[in-house]
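Interim report to the steering committee. The following record documents the input for 4-hydroxy-3-methylbut-2-enyl diphosphate reductase (316 residues).
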Amino acid sequence: MTKPPLTLYLAAPRGFCAGVDRAIKIVEMAIQKWGAPVFVRHEIVHNKFVVDRLKDQGAVFVEDLSDCPDDRPVIFSAHGVPKSVPEAAQARQMIFVDATCPLVSKVHIEAERHSEAGLQIIMIGHDGHPETIGTMGQLPIGEVLLVETVGDVALVDVRDPDKLAFVTQTTLSIDDTKDIVAALQARFPAIQGPHKEDICYATTNRQEAVKAMAPQIDALLVVGAPNSSNSRRLVEVGARNGCAYAQLVQRATDIDWRALDGISSIGITAGASAPEILVDEVIAALRDRFDVTVTEVETAKENIEFKVPRVLREPA
């Protein structure tokens, strides 16, 4: 039977960012250096495929430092941790490696710098997300206030409206964040912002690629995990920019084929913690059902690389 034709628009860049690549290397190198098991506080990145592969190599994932023995190394996830976590590890004389993405660490440093200048911080982020918890945990309770929406800005109770600064989670929607920042600046004209955009280059680039192809496609598939903030934002960006159907899929087996019935064009991208092997799997599943022609939509080139911590580059 003849397969129906399908134009597949493949977003570039997509998938792993430098911070995710570094975090995974940190776990792998720690296992090589110290042997298994190596403990990881929280999923190193939000992707089940990646986490399961590292489990097979000897990583043990836990949610709390109290779940780790004193005599085994522990790694802190790419999302960052409150300052109290490395302090507790140090008190227990544990070997620990911080895999926090350097761009998240930049936000931590900004928050501390503003606080030292006497400013209270407003963080734009998602309540309960590990990155938000980590950033707010850099300072004492009450020094960082969280807003998630434009509506929250009107309700936030600050200490002094003339002594404020804002920071943001690195994986937010660019457009939503602009609206929240505008609301903050309208209510608090003296509020200070970051010297350089907090939303990371990878989040920005992946959203821009989706915006570029959205008007050309009948449907969008985002390869990523449901607990991945940047992956979920890509679905939202696609829908907001004219995609009639946008779905988040972890694997090809998650594709809702009935929703794709009758389409002639589809876009594919992947969140920053999704490996390319899963994108290839989705493309192969589409080729099984369609006569696929691939067109790449490239909006940026990425060549950023972050070094792993020195302790992993030194001999055991």
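The CA atoms of residues 37 and 58 lie 5 Å apart. The committee is asked to note this result when reviewing the revised timeline.
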